[in-house]
Design a protein that fits this description.
The radius of gyration is 32 Å and the shape is elongated. Strands 1, 2, 3, 4, 5, 6, 7, 8 and 9 form a 9-stranded antiparallel sheet that branches. The protein is α+β, with helices and mostly antiparallel strands and about 325 residues long. The chain folds into 2 domains: about 5-205, Jelly Rolls (Sandwich); about 230-320, Arc Repressor Mutant, subunit A (Orthogonal Bundle). The longest helix has about 40 residues, at about 185-225. Helices cover about 50% and strands about 20% of the residues. The termini are far apart.
């Protein structure tokens, strides 16, 4: 006996396929070469895209429950290659390209270079506002700065609030804005986006510079204060006016801990003096105390572990010229 549910299921799949096909045509017509993937064939597909042109600014609103929307082509470097400013109005998406991937929750923004392939993976129904900025316009405001391939702007950050509020007002007043012909709206957004790019570049530059200087400074400080028996993560952090956690993190990037690095420096200094005949008048205990060790037995054990023999034996071997 024929199951009516089978006919209904096939009809729904057919309708979904038609809706998806129509959606792909609309997206390609408005945004370029995109492909939509809906893994669940039984899920009712919904998709709507609207295009606006207000005050010289082109933008679209996208509503869909598609699993993934992929930009399939790579633009030629001679093409216009616009920049997309995507605001997550509703739902959650993960947007990424070959270089990075970010999660967008409501209000979050991503600045995306359309030159490269990209994808938006959605969790349920989403709504996005996609502002299209001409590359030449943004480059004019960025001057010497490179336009990032992908840059995330949190909804809770200062610039996220500023840019997000501006874009939401553009979205809210789309009907009124289309009556005006001036092209300043795109310039206003491009100027603010360029400021965000500039601020991000400066933060990265400062972070990289600070990181390099801090590692070198911490190591130099330890080496110059290795003889101080009170040298510790706390005293080092106090010197640099930071937390001990920061000091631990910095030295961990050198694949060692603070304590190990202090110990290594002290043992090297002791080995050098024990090996130097000009210091033959100093006892092993005096040398150990000079370089921050409070216990001669502990020093001897650490020295043997590091160099394979006790310090007394090492001195005897040095005196024999071996």
């Amino acid at each position: 006996m024929k199951d009516e549910n089978d006919d209904f299921s096939k009809t729904e799949v057919s309708r979904n396929s038609m809706r998806l096909e129509k959606w792909n045509e609309m997206v390609s017509d408005i945004c370029g070469s995109y492909k939509t993937i809906n893994r669940d064939k039984d899920k009712n597909f919904n998709g709507n895209i609207k295009r606006y042109d207000a005050m010289g600014l082109k933008y679209v609103t996208i509503d869909t429950n598609a699993d993934t929307v992929i930009k399939t082509n790579i633009n030629n470097l001679n093409d216009n290659r616009p920049i997309f400013i995507i605001t997550q109005i509703k739902g959650r998406s993960i947007i990424g390209n070959d270089f990075s991937e970010v999660q967008l929750d409501q209000g979050d923004i991503v600045i995306l270079d359309s030159t490269y392939q990209s994808a938006s993976k959605n969790s349920g129904s989403v709504r996005q506002l996609k502002i299209i900025i001409e590359r030449d316009t943004l480059e004019r405001y960025c001057e010497e700065l490179d336009i990032p391939k992908l840059l995330y702007v949190s909804a809770t950050s200062v610039f996220g609030v500023l840019l997000g509020s501006f874009l939401k007002q553009v979205y809210a007043y789309s009907g009124e804005l289309i009556e005006y012909s001036t092209g300043l709206l795109q310039d206003s957004i491009a100027s603010l986006v360029a400021t965000i790019i500039y601020n991000n570049a400066k933060k990265e530059e400062k972070s990289n510079s600070s990181k390099a200087i801090t590692i070198l400074s911490v190591k130099n400080y330890i080496e110059s204060h290795a003889g101080d028996g009170n040298l510790s993560p706390v005293t080092i952090a106090n010197h640099f006016n930071c937390s001990t956690r920061t000091i631990y993190r910095i030295l961990s990037e050198e694949e060692t801990s603070i304590s190990r690095y202090i110990m290594r420096v002290r043992l090297e200094r002791c080995r050098e003096i024990i090996n130097d005949k000009n210091y033959s008048h100093m006892s092993i205990t005096e040398i150990a105390f000079r370089w921050g060790f409070a216990d001669a037995s502990h020093f001897s054990r650490c020295f043997k572990r590091q160099f394979g023999m006790p310090p007394v034996e090492f001195r005897q071997m040095a005196e024999r010229g071996q």
